Amino acid sequence: MPVPKHAPPPPSPPHSLHQAVPPPSPARPHVSLQQPSQKKSPWKPSKLFKSFRHVFRSFPIITPNACKFPAGGRPVDGPHIHGGTRMTGTLFGCRRSRINLAIQENSRCIPMLVLELSTPTGKLLQEMGLGLVRIALECEKHHPADHKTKLMDEPIWTMYCNGRKTGYGVKREATADDLNVMEMLHATSMGAGVLPSDDTATDQGELTYMRGYFERVVGSKDSETYYMMNPDGNTGPELSIFFVRV
User: Where is this region: Disordered (predicted)?
Assistant: First the structure.
């Protein structure tokens, strides 16, 4: 009598099927910001500036020192400043890291200016909650024969906050993270709060922001001022940023 043959066992599944497949990482939202109406040629930092920026980011966040700072301002006409141009300004950064300032033509445009300031984000926002804040950013005037550099294209600034020297400000190109913040806030004209961020920002605290309308007033080719206006329009600017070439 013939012995029945046993069917061969089914092949074992490949080893890769037994491994857990990690979930896909969340993708960044597509950046749909528009170019400003007045396009500028791309700003390219020099080798000297790149070296300074590298050293600047290694500086500790310093305690302000007292210094003289002239008080002053422009007359406020209701919620607007006479002769000013309305812009959108955003202060943002992780609470324990340096704060960033972005100036846009409007909330749906790519920033015209991004500055990294040496003041901690939490410290500056705390001072703004206590009252009026004046920030002065000064840079040295070049040789009289060289007037080609526009004021807002200057790469390095000395920073004063309410009359106290607080370090430096450095102009830089908008990074992918900067554009991601601007994209998340593209529908926000003014306000303050906390934004979602990845795990890498946990050690530096929450990613916070403050956004509002700024009135831009051009004094000369060596001076510009940005006033963040109070929404009620009754108490004048709550933040003034002076750019001066001396």
Answer: 1-45
Burial class (CB in 10 A: 0-12, 13-18, 19+), 106: middle
Amino acid (1-letter code) at residue 243: F
Residues 134-167 have pLDDT tens digits of 999 999 987 665 568 899 999 999 999 999 999 9
Burial of 54: CB neighbours in 10 Å, binned 0-12, 13-18, 19+: exposed
CA dist 121 and 93 (Å) reads: 6
Percent of the chain's residues with pLDDT above 90? 49
Q: What are phi and psi of 70, to 5 degrees?
A: -70, 130
Q: Where are the alpha helices (DSSP H) in 95-136?
A: 121-130
* Residues forming beta bridges with residue 97, ordered by sequence position: none
Tokens matching residue 78: 């209701």
Amino acid 5 reads: K
**C-alpha to C-alpha distance for 154 and 170, rounded to whole angstroms:** 9
**R_g (Cα) of the chain, nearest Å:** 25
Cβ count within 10 A of residue 167: 22
Which among 42, 77, 113, 93 has a CA at the least distance from the CA of 197? 93
CB atoms under 10 Å from CB of 73, counted, come to 15
C-beta separation of 207 from 201 below 8 A? yes
Closest CA to 74 of 232, 222, 226: 226
Q: What is the DSSP letter of 16?
A: G
- Record the tokens describing residue 115, joined without a space: 């500055």
* Residue 87: pLDDT over 90: yes
